[in-house]
């Protein structure tokens, strides 16, 4: 494997990591707000804040890692995506900023402020929607090269069925991933009431998740037949994804092994995400950037790979420590510490 | 008045984000060290006051960290969104430190989370203190790596450029460019200085507001001592920075010092103004001091603006930025020295009102000093975005929507800034020290107070 493949694989792993941890966080924000509105907040909000408090900052860093690494390995992406994504990118930054800071305000500062909680819940759904724009654009067909540089064809983007199906998929998967995680966490905390509630959320959101996945497939076949055909060639990867999805739902429905069920959901998205990514190659942005002609120099590529590996030696033990302290420490989860 | 094209607007938006971000970045780098020192003293002296100090500082700190994180994300993305052509070229060469900065921050974030939620979870308190070390190191290293990127823009090296394509890259040489050592030293020391000054201002203000109690007095003594220490180190690092400039970017120093002609034994001029024919009117003149500051020799030659075409020199108003920065730094060292002096001489009361007010003023002033220093550093590099290779105007986006985004971010930062202040005030007002002391350490307060008030 050359440094370009290592680079894109590592970046994709980070984006996958962000997809999982951020979904848990985004969805939890929405559920917290929803529970408040339906007067069920006493049941789950304590549970949610117990998990989220120590990890919210870590979530954001996954994302920063991805885009810093992307520009590092593939500097041309800075030009094409930077130039075209000014507006959606800025909106995403503003939403992320509101979310991050108001979460801290509400959590460490003034408890129970309804405005903060609303902002926290609303941004949880809007951020995935706005970030998914970048993936949509990468399929090609939404960028025009003019003498003044490249520009985004906003109208085409806003009227494309593919673009909306991605937004829909992003939102429902966020809710599904989050609900399955909270089911596991509630069970771990031995909180029967909360478990019953979030388990229902998980079962409910599984249906739109599978529908949205299929719709996106169909929309992609219309929008980018090349990518679609690549995905068909990788049919077994998506088969595995659906298999893990079914297993997860079956376990949650049976009301047992919630930890395994959440792992299955992680695998479901792992295979779907990597299948999608593999089919996308060699393009990063069709038809302008491929991973080969857009890659940085070999010396920088290797420097980044080495930095990445050394960094992992530092981060993985620290992450394990954090998980040991908060995620798997039964007393902490149960609220005794 | 320059036309508001996308270049000017991109500069405005970048400035806006940086001016706001640097406040929280400075606190983010500096305060963890102060917290760690306070907790360590508390554990060693078995003094709950210092532990509570560390605890309360941390609680305020996480609010500012949150804003630091989100505005840091903003500037990280805006680099690509507003300066796509710059990042397309520079991204090749400086992505390593950007990448490493993220690692350092990740490391810090993980341990900050752990530090925050484990105050009472360890049997031996020193284990909890150990968790503060990676936070201090992580935040410090973030500052180091990101500063190398800024240094690279001032003194690019480690690559060869043929036309518009880069042919070879040496990532380590790019990071360790000539501007890196002095810049890193100045950024770190000034962050520690400013954070200590702000915490000292809070302590001084609390003593002025309420009747002084032993908790605030200990806080003041610790923070002013640290302010003085890091103030002196900042000045030393600043002196090295000036010597770096004299050697490597003489036009930046000359513009700041209004040195129009190259001369030996150059005078240092503070403030003053320029008349129509660019002669200096008024101001305070220190004979031959500039030569000494630039080269360590009162009679040495300092390069003036005459050596550079006018199109390649920065605007002359940065003189004031430079002078404000120096003056504020000197003020900070001066008042903290005064406090220490008063404290040592038993006859004088270091808690007299005027001195306390001077210390209160030093907090916001130090932060202003950071702002002035960065404005000097950034505007002083003009017209270059990558000195000698790419001008600012060539790096900017051509998107027509930058103006609108400027307004969007102005609204965002206003909301964040205001809410931050409101939340912090509420947080500490609803939970005063006296109550928390009694609640957490019921048997310490009385005994200690009597010892101090005599």
UniProtKB/TrEMBL annotation, chain A:
It comes from the Bacteria. GO terms for cellular component: plasma membrane. Belongs to the cytochrome ubiquinol oxidase subunit 2 family. The keyword Transmembrane applies. InterPro entries: Cyt-d_oxidase_su2. Its EC number is 1.10.3.-. Coiled coil: none annotated. One of its GO terms (molecular function) is oxidoreductase activity. It comes from Terrihalobacillus insolitus. The chain crosses the membrane at residues 12-34, 55-74, 80-105, 117-137, 162-186, 198-222, 234-253, 260-279, 299-327. It is found in: Cell membrane. Keywords: Cell membrane, Membrane, Oxidoreductase, Transmembrane, Transmembrane helix. It is a multi-pass membrane protein. This is Cytochrome d ubiquinol oxidase subunit II.
Automatic annotation (TrEMBL), chain B:
InterPro entries: Cyt-d_ubiquinol_oxidase_su_1. One of its GO terms (biological process) is aerobic electron transport chain. It is found in: Cell membrane. GO terms for cellular component: cytochrome complex; plasma membrane. Keywords: Cell membrane, Electron transport, Heme, Iron, Membrane, Metal-binding, Transmembrane, Transmembrane helix, Transport. The keyword Magnesium does not apply. Its main location: membrane. The keyword Transmembrane applies. The chain crosses the membrane at residues 20-41, 61-83, 89-117, 129-153, 184-207, 219-238, 317-342, 354-377, 404-424. GO terms for molecular function: electron transfer activity; heme binding; metal ion binding; oxidoreductase activity, acting on diphenols and related substances as donors, oxygen as acceptor. It is a multi-pass membrane protein. It comes from the Bacteria. Belongs to the cytochrome ubiquinol oxidase subunit 1 family. This is Cytochrome ubiquinol oxidase subunit I.
């Amino acid at each position: 494997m050359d440094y370009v493949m290592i680079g894109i694989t590592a970046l994709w792993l980070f984006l996958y990591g962000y997809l999982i941890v951020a979904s848990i966080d985004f969805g939890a924000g929405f559920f917290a707000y929803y529970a408040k509105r339906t007067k069920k907040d006493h049941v789950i909000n304590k549970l949610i804040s117990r998990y989220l408090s120590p990890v919210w900052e870590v979530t954001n860093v996954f994302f920063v890692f991805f885009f810093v690494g992307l520009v590092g390995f593939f500097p041309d992406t800075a030009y094409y995506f930077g130039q075209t994504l000014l507006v959606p990118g800025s909106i995403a930054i503003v939403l992320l900023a509101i979310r991050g800071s108001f979460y801290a305000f509400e959590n460490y500062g003034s408890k129970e402020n309804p405005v903060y909680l609303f902002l926290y819940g609303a941004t949880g759904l809007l951020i995935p929607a706005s970030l998914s724009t970048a993936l949509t654009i990468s399929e090609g067909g939404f960028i025009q090269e003019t003498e003044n540089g490249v520009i985004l064809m906003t109208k085409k983007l806003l009227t494309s069925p593919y673009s909306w199906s991605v937004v829909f998929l992003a939102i429902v998967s966020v809710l599904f991933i989050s609900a399955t995680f909270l089911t596991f966490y509630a069970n771990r905390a031995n909180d029967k009431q909360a478990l019953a509630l979030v388990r229902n959320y998980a079962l409910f959101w599984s249906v739109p998740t599978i529908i949205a996945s299929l719709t996106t497939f169909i929309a992609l076949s219309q929008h980018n037949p090349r990518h679609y055909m690549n995905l068909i060639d990788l049919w077994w990867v998506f088969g595995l994804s659906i298999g893990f999805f079914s297993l997860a739902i079956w376990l949650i429905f049976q009301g047992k092994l919630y930890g395994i069920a959440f792992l299955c959901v992680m695998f479901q998205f792992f295979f779907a995400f990597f299948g999608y990514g593999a089919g996308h190659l060699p393009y990063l942005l069709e038809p302008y950037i491929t991973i080969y002609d857009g890659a940085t120099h070999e010396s920088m590529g290797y420097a980044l790979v080495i930095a990445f590996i050394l960094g992992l030696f530092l981060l993985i033990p620290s992450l394990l420590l954090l998980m040991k302290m908060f995620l798997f420490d039964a007393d902490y989860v149960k609220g005794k510490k | 008045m320059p036309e508001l094209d996308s270049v000017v607007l991109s500069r405005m938006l970048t400035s806006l984000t940086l001016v706001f971000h640097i406040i929280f970045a400075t606190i983010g780098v500096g305060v963890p060290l102060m917290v760690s020192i306070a907790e360590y003293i508390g554990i060693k002296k078995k003094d709950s006051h210092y532990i509570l100090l560390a605890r309360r500082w941390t609680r305020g700190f996480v609010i500012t960290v949150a804003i630091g994180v989100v505005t840091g994300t903003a500037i990280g993305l805006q680099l690509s969104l507003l300066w796509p052509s710059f990042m397309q070229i520079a991204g090749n060469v400086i992505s390593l430190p950007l990448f490493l900065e993220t690692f350092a921050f990740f490391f810090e974030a993980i341990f900050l989370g752990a530090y925050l939620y484990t105050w009472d979870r360890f049997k031996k308190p020193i284990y909890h203190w150990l968790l503060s070390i990676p936070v201090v190191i992580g935040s410090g290293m973030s500052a180091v790596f990101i500063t190398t990127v800024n240094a690279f823009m001032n003194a690019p090296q480690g690559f060869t450029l043929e036309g518009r394509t880069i042919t070879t890259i040496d990532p380590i040489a790019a990071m360790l460019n000539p501007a890196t050592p002095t810049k890193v030293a100045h950024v770190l020391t000034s962050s520690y200085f400013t954070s200590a000054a702000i915490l000292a201002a809070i302590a001084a203000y609390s003593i002025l507001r309420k009747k002084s109690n032993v908790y605030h007095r200990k806080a003041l003594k610790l923070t002013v001592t640290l302010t003085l220490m890091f103030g002196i180190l900042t000045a030393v690092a600043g002196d090295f920075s000036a010597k770096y400039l004299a050697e490597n970017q003489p036009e930046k120093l000359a513009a700041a010092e209004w040195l129009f002609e190259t001369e030996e034994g150059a005078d240092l001029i503070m403030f003053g103004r320029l008349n129509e024919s660019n002669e200096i009117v008024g101001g305070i003149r220190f004979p031959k001091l500039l030569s000494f500051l630039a080269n360590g020799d009162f009679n040495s030659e300092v390069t003036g603006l005459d050596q550079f075409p006018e199109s390649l020199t920065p605007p002359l108003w940065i003189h004031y930025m430079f002078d404000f920065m120096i003056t504020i730094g000197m003020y900070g060292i001066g008042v903290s020295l005064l406090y220490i002096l008063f404290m040592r001489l038993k006859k004088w009361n270091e808690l007299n009102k005027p001195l306390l007010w001077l210390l209160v003023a030093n907090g916001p002033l130090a932060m202003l000093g950071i702002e002035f220093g960065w404005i000097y550093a950034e505007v002083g590099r003009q017209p270059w975005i990558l000195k000698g290779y790419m001008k600012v105007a060539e790096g900017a986006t051509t998107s027509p929507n930058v103006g609108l985004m400027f307004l969007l971010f102005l609204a965002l930062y206003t909301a964040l800034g205001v809410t931050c202040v409101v939340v912090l005030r509420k947080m500490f007002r609803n939970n005063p020290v006296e109550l928390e002391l009694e609640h957490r350490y019921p048997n310490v307060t009385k005994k200690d107070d009597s010892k101090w008030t005599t």
